[in-house]
Amino acid sequence: MTTIAIFKWAMDPHDERVGVDGNVKWSANKPVAGDDDHEVVKVALGIAGEGEVVGMTMAGGDTAFAAARGAKRTIAIEGVDALAQPVELAGALAAAVRAQEGVDAVVIGDSAWEPMVPSLLASMLGWPCVLAADGARREGDALVVTRRFGAGTQDVQVDSPAVIAVAARREEESKPGMRAVLAARKLPVEKIAGSAEGFVHMDSQGTHAPESAPARIFDGTNPEAAVEQLVAALKAEGVL
Fold it and tell me: Which stretches make up the Electron transfer flavoprotein alpha/beta-subunit N-terminal domain (predicted)?
C-alpha cells in the first residue's frame, strides 16, 4: 500500500503584507515547506511500515524535502497558482491523490497557514479526516491516530483510506545532512498537471488588516492610583 506525505503546498503568511488600502503584496512567489511538514513525513513513514511513502508537493522550489527524509519518490503538481484559494488547492491535491494506485493514507500538515485545506481534501476524496494529530500507527486495515484532545491526547481508530492532519509540537530536531539532500535530489520526481476542475470555486471578497483596539495608558505618577485604575479597567472588561 502507498502512503502519501503532502509537503510544501501553502504560502507562508509571514511573506504577506496587507496595505491600509487592502492591497496584498507577497515577498515570495511560491509555497515553502511548512512548520508541520517534517512531522508529516515522519508520521507517514510510521504508517507505511513495509509499504511505500510518496511525497507530494506543488512544483517549484525544493521538491526533495520528503525524499531527504525517507520518501521513495515525489510527485510535483504543476500549473496551480501559488495564491490559489483553499478549494482549488484541495481540489488539485485530491485529483493527484486519485491518480495514484493503492493509496490508503494521506498525511498533511494541520496548517495554520491554510487551515481549511486538510478538511476540504478529505471531503473531496470522501475519506474520514483526523485533525490535530500527533502520530499514527496501523492496526490491521485500520489506523489508530493519536490526536490532541483538551489538555491531553486521545487515540482514535479510523478505517483507511483516511486523511491525517499532523500538527507538529516542536521544530525538527535532526535535519537531513547535505549528503542525504544530494542523494534525495537523484530520486524520481514525477511532474503532473494540476487540476481543480469540477469543484466549487471561492472568490476573495477583499482583504483588510485586523482591527486593533487603542492602547490605554495609565499615569504612573501615583502608583496606587494607577493600580486602582488598572484593576477597575480589567473588571470592566470581565478579566477579573
Answer: 21-201
Would you give the DSSP letter of residue 145? Answer: E
pLDDT at residue 119, rounded to an integer: 94
User: Looking up cell 509499504, which residue turns up?
Assistant: 51
Q: Starting at the edge strand that comes first in sequence, how are the strands of the sheet with 73-78 ordered?
A: 152-159, 142-149, 129-139, 162-166, 103-109, 2-6, 52-58, 73-78, 189-193
- Residue 234: strand, helix, or coil: helix
What distance in Å separates the CA atoms of residue 38 and residue 103, rounded to the nearest whole number?
A: 20
Reference 2, options 109, 97, 112, 67; nearest CA is 97
Q: Check the CA dihedral 101-131-158-172 and report its sign.
A: positive
- Of 92, 107, 80, 135, the C-alpha closest to 5 is 107
Q: What is the pLDDT of residues 11-56, one digit of tens each?
A: 888 888 887 777 888 888 888 888 899 999 999 999 998 899 999 9
Which alpha helices (DSSP H) does 13-84 contain, by range? 37-48
* CA separation for the pair 173, 164 (Å, rounded): 22
First to last CA, the chain: 55
Handedness of CA 171, 176, 100, 79 (dihedral sign): positive
Residue with cell 520518501: 71
Average pLDDT over residues 136-147: 91
pLDDT score at 75:
95
CA–CA distance, 142 with 202 (Å, rounded to integer): 34
